[in-house]
Design brief:
Largest sheet: none
Distance between the termini: 113 Å
Helix content: 40-55%
Shape: elongated
Order of helices and strands: HHHHHHHH
Number of helices: 8
Number of strands: 0
Length: 175
Amino acid sequence: MTNDLIVLDPEATHGPAFSALTEMQQKFVIASLMLGGSNEAEAARCAGYEVTSAKQAAHALMRKPHVIAAMREEAEMRMNGGALLASSALLAIVKNPLHKEHFKACIELLNRSGLQFIQKHEVIHTDNRTAAELVAYIKQVAPKLLGVPQDVVDAEYSEVDQSLSEMLGEADGDD
């Protein structure tokens, strides 16, 4: 690929991110894809950047969000186009029962065609303690969980209907 210049196809359809690039940036994206992303400086040289500054240009281009977006866009288009090739290869393995990956290919084909095997695990927890045992357990752990002081007295109580003045021993009208 050395010394080859990238020529853009005016008939090719590209996405909005790619179309927004300058011609040199578009050539860099195409060259990068052709090289598989393995040599950014070579992609810059192929795109027409000066040989002496290709490495710096590639470094700068690979950090521009709009260039990266265009690369992603073009790569996605390639992947979508390659889906036919991949599905053909998968079907070839499925059709060959002697292939070492035959079973895995069958499973993958089923998964990708909407017939996934769904495995469901149900776990049931049971607590066979009596109500009295549960109340005793709750009384034991509640103070620790709620941060209640341990020296709280557990006692019975009853309501008293008494006014504050009666409680203090003051009689009504004794002034």
